[in-house]
Amino acid sequence: MTMLILGLVIFLGVHSVRIVADDWRSATRARIGENGWKGAYTLLSLAGFALLCYGYGQARQQPVLLWATPVWTRHLAALLTLPAFVLLAASQVPGNAIKARLRHPMLLGVKLWASAHLIANNTAADLLLFGSFLVWAAIDFRAARQRDRAQQIAYPAGRSGPTLVAVVGGLLAWALFAFWAHGVLIGVRPFG
Q1: pLDDT tens, 168-179?
Q2: Which residues contact 44 (CB under 8 A, 6 or more apart)?
Q3: pLDDT of residue 156 exceeding 90
Q4: Verdict on whether the full-model pTM lies above 0.85
Q5: Which helix H or strand E contains 41, and what residues bound it?
Q6: What percentage of the chain carries pLDDT values higher than 90?
Q7: Distance set, CA 163 to CA 16, 102, 172 (Å)
Q8: Residues 6+ apart with CB under 8 A from 192
Q9: Are 186 and 179 in contact (CB under 8 A)?
Q10: Tell me: the pLDDT tens digits for 42-73?
Q11: Are 4 and 50 in contact (CB under 8 A)?
Q12: pLDDT tier, 154 (very low <50, low <70, confident <90, very high otherwise)
């Protein structure tokens, strides 16, 4: 589980810089430039993601079971991930009402995704991976809302067209992932 932990520390660490060191982040971006910052951020994120995927895959080969999970938890997880995909799509579609109302839908989607996987999975690696993402998303959501209030950021009202695009896009992405990509990429078929 060392690789999983290292990957989580790097990936979530990079994604937590704004939470714990926003002034340092701003100064570093100014010093190395926007492209330099984005390049370093991307490389570290990819390295962390690769390590956590590899580490999680290794941990799954020798699972440490923590509790029993009834079959119905898989169905509940599938149900919870559906709005998580819609929230993820809403974070990427400008001008939609979901983003206007919730302000940070991606973080809420990560919280739903992580919660769903904690409900349906029962190993130490699952608890570490999904629990870490859940805690990070909760802390980041709170920090983002505080920044919004401090900077008096006003989100424009959402329009119906972009909202429909976000909802349909999220539903299609969920269906693609749930019925095909999850099995291909993760090796587990939620509906199989």
Answers
A1: 999 999 999 999
A2: 10, 14
A3: no
A4: yes
A5: helix 22-61
A6: 93
A7: 29, 13, 14
A8: 183
A9: no
A10: 999 999 999 999 999 999 999 999 999 999 99
A11: no
A12: confident
Q: Which two tokens stand for residue 128?
A: 């570490």
Please say if the pLDDT value at position 24 is more than 80.
Answer: yes
Beta-bridge partner residues of 123 = 65
Residue 36 one-letter amino acid? G
Tokens of 160: 């119906």
Q: Which residue has the tokens 């709005």?
A: 83
Return the HEC string of 89-152.
Answer: HHHHCCCEHHHHHHCCHHHHHHHHHHHHHHHHCCEHHHHHHHHHHHHHHHHHHHHHHHHHHHHC
Q: Which residue has the tokens 């587990």?
A: 188
